[in-house]
Queue: 2 jobs
Job 1
Amino acid sequence: MNTVKTVRELRAAVARARNEGKRIGFVPTMGNLHSGHVALITKATQRVDFVVASIFVNPLQFGAGEDLDKYPRTLAADQEKLLQAGCHLLFAPTVEEMYPDGMAGQTRVSVPQLSEGLCGASRPGHFEGVATVVSKLFNMVQPDLAIFGQKDFQQLAVIRALVHDLNMPIQIIGEPTVRAADGLALSSRNGFLSEEQRAIAPEVYRTLTRISDAIKQGERDYPTLINEQIRQLEAAGLRVDYLEIRHALTLRPATVEDRDLVILVAAFLGTTRLIDNLHLNLDAPA
Ligand code: PAF
């Protein structure tokens, strides 16, 4: 696996693969890779001939006071994992390479509606930063398909929308969340948890499962269900940012008639913000 740091080298390497008739798959990441990322690379190797990953901690998607500076940077370990997973090319640019003219005047891509609410409400500008960097990366790599984790459910919806709205010829694939044995969704931020917090963290997924089970059993009083579960999360020691039931495609608040649902949560343990979600299609065969 080759690592390149400039757009010029990236384009040259991808062009070589294209000239050999290869289909290109792309997995954008911020590094500090775990089994969830490895699953995305593995999926890509099954679908295309040439897999490109990127590692770039994108300052544009972090708000003031967020964890940009302490976000773990573990390039050597990441390169090893990518190599083992069958990745062909890693693009690991600097901030200057991605934003050579600085960020203030950078053209932005914004996806209204889907970016509002949920994580968009507590992280203003976050999805604009994501949509902008992903658009840039897509134009740099020009992949046939790109793979993202479903753990960032709203992010995936935003990316699907931007690809559709801007007519990018890229197939977007969402891969199921990889979980620890106790249900906690794998995340680079889990490393920030103390032992005590790590023991509490699985309560996030248990909450989603309880809500999903209740809905499957016919519960339709969503406000009461949500309020009860918020109380339980807070009693367990989490500070809830949001816990909501939404329509899985539009992400608007779910009505009792909706059948394709997603339950989404963001909660703090100390200063670490965990997110998770559970997709529940009431029409899917059991
Ligand atoms: O999900 C992530 O790791 C990031 O938001 C992404 C998609 C790589 C954009 O920086």
Note: The two ends are 42 Å apart (CA to CA).
Job 2
Amino acid sequence: MTDLAQLEATAEALVAEGKGILAADESDGTIKKRFDSIGIESTEESRRAYRDMLFTTEGAEEYISGVILFDETIRQTSADGTPFPKLLESRGIIPGIKVDKGAKPLANAPGETITEGLDGLRERLNEYRELGARFAKWRAVFSITDDLPSQYCEWTNAHALARYAGLCQEAGLVPIVEPEVLQDGTHTIERSFIVTSRVLGAVFTELFDQKVELEGILLKPNMVLSGYDAPHRASADEVADSTLRCFRRHVPAAVPGIVFLSGGQSDEDATAHLNAMNVRGPHPWELSFSYGRALQAPSLKAWAGQSDQVEAGQRAFYHRAKMNSAARTGVYAPEMERDFVAGGT
Ligand code: 13P
């Protein structure tokens, strides 16, 4: 297989029918916030135990094609001593790795950030590949206000995303390219459409200019939504129509898949929105999920750091994975949520 054919095969496997990605790559700061919400301390062992619970959920591989790990996690092991990447691989789940070093203040751009991590990235990617990773993730962040994001922020982040993507492909890893337009604020869905369009325009220009092979990437974007505090909240139909219109304009058909982030939507909204888009298919690209919070929130709550609640946590995770798998195929219905409450799944 040529290098590109290998990348394409990995990208296609990550968006295989009925499957999507679990983002479990919370940085130490973010996982601490999640653990604070259930009142447990974030230690190396509590983080390991939590991820172990998710990764050993029986049957999750029916719905989960890949898992994005954090640097600490890719080096940790399951309770029986099996390294996490090996455990996932043995279950047919592809291990991935977050490689950016976070969003830092962008010089001369108050309120905006640039994602760092390019220095030494080539070497780190080679190490991660040795550790078992087959794909990677880099997240750029854009806030919406009346005046932001600036063009400067859009293009510097797009440039960095493309540099990262090129290095990943050189190392034989599929880059997940993640430009996230945050939905915090009171903006309308129309404003989200305009900003998401501009950001995607910059990202695909940079990917093209830097010779990234679009057949060997996945795009991980936000959906086009109204701001979380907007006076008028866009419906699932509006979200699906606006998001598809935006992506048809800006995402070349060569890209095998779009795997959405959930970005603070409720679990069920994230599922319903993905379903509404897939119902409108077929599309030029697979439309799937790469959710963090929307796959994990009920599971984290059910587990609550208690070793005797591992099974409850796994049931909750399995249920959300199953619901999102249905949405990824366009066959989700809110009534399916009831099976879980009744103990049916
Ligand atoms: P959320 O689905 O919680 O937004 O997380 C996805 C992710 O990986 C953000 O980088």
Note: The domain at 4-341 is CATH 3.20.20.70 (TIM Barrel).
